[in-house]
Amino acid sequence: MAFDIRNEIEKLKKEKNAVILAHNYQVKEVQEIADFVGDSFELAKIGKEADAEIIVFCGVRFMAESAAILSPEKKVLLPVEDAGCPLADTIKAEDVKALKKSYPRIPVVTYINSSVEVKAESDYCCTSSNAVDVVNSIDSDKVIFIPDSNLGSFVQEHTNKKLILWDGHCTVHHRVNVEDILRIKAIYDNSFVICHPECRPEVVEACDIACSTSKMIEEAKKTDKKTVILVTEEGMRHRIQKEVKDKLIVIASPKLMCVNMKKTKLQHVYEALALEQTEVKVSEEIREKALIPLKRMLQIGKRQKQFIGA
Ligand code: 13P
Ligand code: SF4
């Protein structure tokens, strides 16, 4: 019988009691083989709750690291070892220590797009889906927000607290400028434009809404416009078009491609499962410290849900 990589992945998954998680930006084939596809926040929660011994994390390193911090009893595999995030690389633990020295007693909120060492120096974590809620929940009128200054500026627009920002950017979203938005809007008039809050503030201003990757799916379903323009990584097009069949989904610019998110192919998922590589290892000392801000973030998420449900 011919070798069918999808069947082999399914077989190995069952044999090894593994779960495959994929970020919304992954290539179509990887999204399709995954058990769950979602944004950073959803995947962090799903990984923790999954009844599995192995997590194959198809995304970038910081995401797999977050899963390893939250699920020490599971083996977390990152199929492509050098799938990193240039935004996460803009800040090191030493930089956070220096910031805390310059601004004593000011809580540090760290975007999940950061290394485990940076998280270990932080008070709270957040993702793009809960950054505003996390900042607003803190009992302090000043907050250090790292490392994405565009997301920080977005949060600043939605809080009365004063944010101290770090000058980090996502190289993909920061490339897009207002001219790109005006050009695509002129082609598709009468469209709904959704961007990620990692975009520049003036780009956010030129769009209809800024939200996390998974919230984009809800917004694309809700709008009565027939064309939805996405100002985010191009993998989102497939993710949304699959669920929103009656609308045209377009990506605002060819600049919106994250090479790191595109590194993982089906072959790597197969190899990861077959050889149980590359395991993401975090020292217990750092893991315990990094767990605190991540747990606080999940707790805030739970409280918000209770409040909304009340
Ligand atoms: P989400 O948390 O919205 O999935 O975004 C992650 C990311 O890397 C955006 O560039
Ligand atoms: Fe990092 Fe940007 Fe790629 Fe997201 S899209 S993984 S923030 S470089």
UniProtKB/TrEMBL annotation:
GO terms for biological process: 'de novo' NAD+ biosynthetic process from L-aspartate. [4Fe-4S] cluster binds at C85, C170, C258. This is Quinolinate synthase. Gene3D superfamilies: NadA-like. Catalyzes the condensation of iminoaspartate with dihydroxyacetone phosphate to form quinolinate. It holds the Pfam family NadA. Binds 1 [4Fe-4S] cluster per subunit. Coiled coil: none annotated. Iminosuccinate binds at H23, S40, Y111, I112, N113, S128, H196, P197, E198, T213. InterPro entries: NadA, NadA_sf, Quinolinate_synth_type2. Its EC number is 2.5.1.72.
